[in-house]
Amino acid sequence: MRDLAPTLLSWDRFAVASVVAVRGSAPRPVGAAMAVGPDGQVIGSVSGGCVEAEVYELARTVLETSEPALATFGYSDDTAFAAGLTCGGSLDVLVQRDSSSLRAALQATVDGRPLSVRFEAGGRVFTESWLPPPRLLVFGAIDHAAAVAEIGRFLGYHVTVCDARPLFATPERFPAAHSVVVDWPHRYLAATPTGRDTAVVVLTHDAKFDVPVLAEALSRPLAFVGALGSRRTHHERLERLRAEGVPEEALARLRSPVGLDLGGRTPAETAVSVAAELVAVRHGGSGLPLSALSTPIHRPQESHGTDLPQRRRHAGRATALPAAGHADGVPGAQCPQVPVLLGAGDVPRDARVGLGLGDR
To answer: Which residues form the XdhC Rossmann domain (predicted)?
Structure first.
């Protein structure tokens, strides 16, 4: 739902459908969302097209009645247009109207503040954690960096491009980047907070830039550290990093030459290759063609049907703080009502910003 936040906040009313449980194979994961606006506009998706029409009608009903609905969709082959999942799985979809509490949560995630949102329907409570987006730090203001920044933003990263040369490091050259920094890469990285969700891609092709920043990056517990270059450049770079005292176990984390073997050569094709490796590392993929594998396409979701967070995506990341009386998102005995919005930035930890789904 957080991906839809800017559009939802621009509508005066809406109904939003969220996937709250997945069993077996399904096109979209837990947390996928689709929304219907005041004039019937549609954004997002809950199934990649299998049950969208049915969910659309349900959302229109919820938009009119303001009553939340919880529906289950499973496999159906009765007719070509039956509301079912052709992949054989099933999913639960929660549909709810907009509320002041939900709008506050959406605004908080647009502002980059971590929070947990709770919804209640059919006697069940669902939670979704929205954390700040993972960071992608791109070092080297070359043409490849523009393409990597663009695809990184498309994948949901907060992208920063950094280079010590002010002539090249300009916002005009990197419109997809959230920020463009003029500084020595190693100095900027040394002063920048990072976490296990941070990815670093070094594209400088110059030892005086890439060796210091890679030495700094490999000293941190980052999600991904990659560097562009030929195999000869890679071997020379390893020797320079060893000379800088970088231990072998840290060097083993360096993905260089960065990217998967796709055979491309252009900056855009190289960016796709880099992005493919980022996604594979992030989700534990093999990087092999699906046609060469016999394993399930979609890995099992770590959900029992009552939890919205995509935990694989946020593994190792700091969680949003729950409100007082709650531990790990479970209501405490002194807090019988379930708050919709928890831990949103400056909201006091004992505050309840909207309760249940009745805050219209």
So the answer is: 136-278
